[in-house]
Design brief:
Radius of gyration: 20 Å
Strand content: 5-15%
Strand order of the largest sheet: 1-2
Number of helices: 10
Order of helices and strands: EEHHHHHHHHHH
Oligomer: single chain
Helix content: 55-70%
């Protein structure tokens, strides 16, 4: 039987529930065919369907609720005047949901597959390192699905197109399929450091909180409750969002750069920001980015628990 301790983490446009598991002993390493990988992926999804259904609902609610804050952040990062204008706050939301909700399923399934493969390959490695690397690889895998919706979302938020259908037509006519992966490297350059910072900060925050809790209660066996884990996750996510804001701004500018003004690469974009705006330019939009995280985690957590309880009553 596999024991688990769930922690809620925000990521990108929403919150994602990541489960850190203590796995059974790894099986001997064997060569795995694509068919077996697909079978394993589908079995993982089927086994976790209750969790994934609740997580999908929670992800959708948290994204929809906090979407205006995300739009304001994009406007601020693009240095648009009147970033707080009410018109267009929800432009691109539907496309974001289409990208983000399946993304959660894809990253969860691929995370489990990577985790088991790495445990088999490196049985003597600390499990925590395996889990962290698996989470990063899961994010990278999911980014292949997420990037097109992110490009459309941000170009709509920026007011470059009036509707989703116009965005699809415009991007396709200009660049073909490659246009939907504009800024893909910028997304990875943000997401991988964010995930590393998030996981590391969560572990540190959790350890400090547990130490304080044990000292306060005198109970050496004290553990984090689900709510306490969510609070630690929100704190870790907020800190990680702040320190990776420069990478988030680079990603935004790369995805909305329709004239190649920022050079089409992470280095070229960063260089232009520093040249034109100085170091402060890298932190444009940091307030709404950080302010997005904690409420998003809370909304996700409450919705997830509510849906899970409803589903359990029906079973």
């Amino acid at each position: 039987m596999v024991g688990s301790a769930a922690a809620t983490f925000p990521r990108g446009g929403g919150a994602a529930k990541i489960t850190a598991t203590t796995s059974a002993p790894a099986a001997p390493s064997t060569t795995i065919s694509p068919a077996l990988i697909l079978k394993s992926f589908l079995k993982t999804i089927a086994d976790a369907r209750s969790h994934l259904a609740a997580a999908a609902a929670a992800r959708a609610v948290s994204i929809f609720s906090m979407y205006p804050v995300d739009t304001i952040k994009t406007r601020m990062q693009m240095k648009q005047g009147d970033a707080f204008r009410l018109s267009g706050l929800y432009k691109g939301c539907a496309g974001s949901l289409v990208g983000q909700v399946p993304y959660g399923v894809l990253t969860f399934g691929s995370y489990e597959i990577y985790k088991q493969a790495l445990l088999n390959k490196f049985p003597n490695t600390k499990p925590a390192l395996i889990y962290a690397l698996s989470a990063i690889l899961g994010d990278v895998t999911g980014s292949g699905w997420l990037c097109p919706s992110e490009v459309m979302k941000q170009q709509l938020q920026a007011g470059l197109y009036p509707s989703m259908s116009e965005a699809i037509k415009g991007i396709w006519s200009k660049s073909g399929i490659a246009g939907f992966y504009q800024g893909f490297t910028g997304g990875l350059a943000r997401d991988v450091p964010f995930r590393v910072a998030q996981l590391t900060t969560f572990e540190v925050t959790k350890s400090l909180y547990l130490k304080a809790k044990k000292g306060r209660t005198g109970d050496d066996n004290a553990a984090l409750s689900a709510v306490e884990a969510a609070v630690c996750g929100a704190a870790a996510g907020s800190f990680s969002a702040a320190i990776t804001n420069p990478l988030d701004r680079i990603k935004t500018l790369m995805m909305t750069d329709t004239t190649n003004a920022y050079g089409g690469s992470v280095v070229a974009c960063a260089s232009k920001i520093l040249k034109d705006e100085g170091i402060g330019g890298l932190f444009a939009g940091v307030a709404p980015r950080v302010g997005y995280i904690a409420p998003s985690v809370c909304i996700f957590f409450v919705t997830y628990e509510f849906v899970q309880q409803k589903m359990q009553k029906k079973e």
